[in-house]
Amino acid sequence: MVSGEARGGDETIVVRGVSKDTRTIEAGNLYVPIIGAKFDGHDYAKEAIGKGAAATLWQRDRGAPPEGVPAIVVDDSLAAMQRLAAAYRRQLPVRIVGVTGSNGKTTTKDMIAAVLAERYNVHKTEGNLNGDIGLPLMILQMDERTEFAVLEMGMRGFGEIELLTRIAKPEAAVVTMIGEAHMERLGSREGIAKAKLEILIGLEEGGLFAYNGDEPLLAALLPSTPKPESLRAVRFGAGAGNDLTPSGIAMDADGSTFTVNGEKEPVYRIPLPGRHNVVNALAAVAVGRFFGMADEAIARGLATMRPTGMRIERLRAPSGLTVLNDAYNASPSSTRASIELLKELEGFRRKIVVLGDMLELGDREADFHREIGALLAPDRIDYVFAYGPLSKHIAEAALPAYGEDGSRVRWFPDDKQSLAGEVAKVAGPDDVVLVKGSRGMRLEEVVQRFMTEQL
Q1: How confident is the model at residue 136 (pLDDT cuts 50, 70, 90)?
Q2: Whose CA is closest to 437, among 450, 446, 426?
């Protein structure tokens, strides 16, 4: 399965599961030594065996495996794990849904998995394990009884999603939207769209392609994209020209309700506020219908979904302050959506936003931050707190609308504690604060202070 050569072991060794981390390894696992920029997993192979691993992969250019360590010698340990995942996937009758997009893919993955779980045994991507290491691990962690797997596919450049989709061979593929993240590697939004559409290369014949029809780039590039000869394309989105559109949207701080295509029934509810989340829920509706599920079962699944943490996670601080924790990641498009959500929320005395830098945006990073600042309006959002060097542009663009004294717009280049303290001075129990920033800004530390202190 991995095109390797056994060393120091025999056919009596049985492998149960795969791990790349000695901290979480279980008895019988095959240890996979990953090589990073500042570490080499081969250095921990002996420790892995000592903790119960049955054997280890061993990259040929790392010399001989340690004495007494059963090993499978391969040319490339990561590529071998990827081949292993592809081979295991082919052995199973599992049906796979692949989900990608610049924003919303994790939440969409969670919604699709919740829908399918109404009828099937479902496995889904955990956390952010959606790349060339994470996706193979997710496949190798599947129980043989798994009926469906919903796998998130992330990328930073061309060819990465093609690799993942060739491993997973999905029966349904979803593209949520095209944003601006990774612009420095892919050059343009068109480049990002092309990279996301690579998911179709591995799509099974006759499979479903559900994509955001509000994004003209996807429709324009689809005819020239390598894909199966036969597929079923379903467009979802807010625009009238889509196959699935939301109607009757109602929203509160706990979630959103909607119907589809103007129909009165069923009424769907998701435990997430925001029109962008409603649009992505349509992808789950499309997938559920494609696999023969009744609308009522789809509605039950959506109502019970549990989103991955730090994605519009509603929290209540000890002071009574409502915190919308969206600190997992940020791009211009996802930040715009979160700001629009905050503007639409009712029932709060004051609305406060804490915005961190949006990273990996290339040469236009300053422009993108200024555009976000220009969206902020004092009649809809009462206070603006910006964090990080790039977010200075957010504060500068927002300041003219809020008044030159700067009392309602504050910028903090590098001090989260001071930022949290200043928010505490204006935030009360009847207020709501949205926290949004790229992963590298670690704004969950600000959220944690809100949740552990009386403001």
Answers
A1: very high
A2: 446
Annotated binding-site ranges for ATP? 101-107
Q: What is the pLDDT of residue 455?
A: 47
Residue 224 tokens, joined: 């020239």
d(CA 167, CA 149): 13
For the chain, the 3-state helix, strand and coil shares in percent, each to the nearest 5, are: 35, 20, 40
pLDDT tens digits, one per residue of 260-282:
999 999 999 999 888 999 999 99
The structure tokens 């036969």 sit at 230
pTM summary value: 0.81
Q: In 82-117, which positions are buried (b, 16+ CB within 10 angstroms) versus exposed (e)?
A: bbbbbebbeebebbbbbbbbbbbbbbbbbbbbbbbb
Q: Clarify whether residues 385 and 293 are in a common domain.
A: no
* Distance (Å, whole) CA 316 – CA 424: 14
| Residue 56 lies inside a defined structural domain of this protein | yes
Q: Structure tokens of 386?
A: 């910006």
In terms of C-beta density within 10 A (0-12 exposed, 13-18 middle, 19 or more buried), how is residue 211 classed? buried
Where is the binding site, in residues? 101-107
Give yes or no for a contact between 30 and 77, defined as CB atoms under 8 angstroms apart.
Answer: no
**Nearest 5°: phi and psi at 332?**
-55, -45
Same domain flag for 338 and 286: no
Last residue of a domain, one of 269, 304, 339: 304
Q: Which of 304, 199, 286 is nearest to 245 (CA)?
A: 286
